[in-house]
Specification:
heterodimer; A: alpha/beta; 5-stranded parallel beta sheet; two-stranded antiparallel sheet; 4 helices; 26% helix; 22% strand; B: alpha/beta; Hypothetical Protein Ychn, Chain: A; 5 strands
Chain lengths: 127, 130
């Protein structure tokens, strides 16, 4: 935890995204928590593990499944001061993806580094 | 210790609500404080008073209501998740022009800010399911 200038305490929040974007609602509802949580001025990071990396892939077209394509919302996170996005490098590689395939700039980290990032959090919300 | 609880799955399909209930009961018995139990995703279905499980099975919803009454627990259903899934309290039903409400005793409907606040205020936020 860090002392804020206003005397309050900011906690480190990490949102862990593990699921592909449209097979279940977890990814969309996770993003809703991130957007609401941004108003609380905490220290926020996002992590994408496993199939969660598919949430960030460019060129998503959801017309056929009649669901809302929410991938553009990740580009708006910067406006909410949410800029720390970590992607598991092994997860990208296993799926034939690189950082260039993603809609936002991310930091690709190996599983070991991801474990360290998690170790440094106060609150981990896993979806 | 002050604990926040997040339940991400509905009753019966998934054991998350059972595990959370047993955890909360055990934590209270050990003298810990439960700051809030927040229900998200299908977890909001833990708050419908219309559940009628078979008589020889546990009543998950009633069990939460009773524990809340006994220990003054704050059981919160996420409003956005609840609206998607047809969970209404009387004022939400009125606001949305619906002819019924189905919130179980001891639960209330509120925003996601209540989850973030639980993360900030509690010493630990424990997540069940998802």
């Amino acid at each position: 935890m860090e002392e804020q200038s206003g005397g309050g305490v900011a906690k480190r929040f990490l949102y862990v995204n593990r699921k592909a974007p449209y097979g279940t609602i977890y990814a969309l509802e996770s993003l809703e928590v991130v957007l609401i949580g941004a108003a609380f001025e905490q220290d926020v990071s996002l992590a994408f593990l496993g199939d969660g990396v598919y949430q960030l892939v460019k060129g998503q077209d959801t017309k056929g499944v009649e669901m809302k394509n929410f991938s553009p919302t990740f580009r708006a996170l910067e406006d909410y001061d949410v800029t720390k996005l970590y992607v598991e490098r092994e997860a990208l590689q296993a799926r034939g993806l690189t950082e260039a395939d993603l809609v936002v700039p991310v930091e690709a980290v190996d599983a070991e580094r991801m474990a360290e990032i998690m170790e440094n959090q106060d609150v981990i919300l896993s979806f | 210790m002050k604990l926040g609880i997040l339940v991400n799955e509905g009753p019966y399909t998934h054991a998350a609500s059972d595990s959370a209930y047993q955890f909360v009961k055990a934590a209270l018995a050990k003298g810990h404080e439960i700051y809030r139990v927040f229900f998200y995703h299908d977890g909001v279905n833990n708050g419908t008073r219309l559940t009628v499980p078979p008589q020889d099975d546990r009543n998950i919803v009633k069990r939460w209501s009773e524990l809340a009454a006994q220990h003054k627990l704050d059981l919160v259903l996420c409003i956005a998740a609840a609206q998607r899934r047809g969970l209404m309290d009387p004022s939400e039903a009125k606001r949305n022009g619906k002819d019924a409400d189905n919130i179980a005793p001891g639960f209330r409907i509120s925003g996601l800010g209540q989850l973030i606040e639980a993360g900030i205020q509690a010493d630990r936020l424990v997540v069940f399911g998802g």
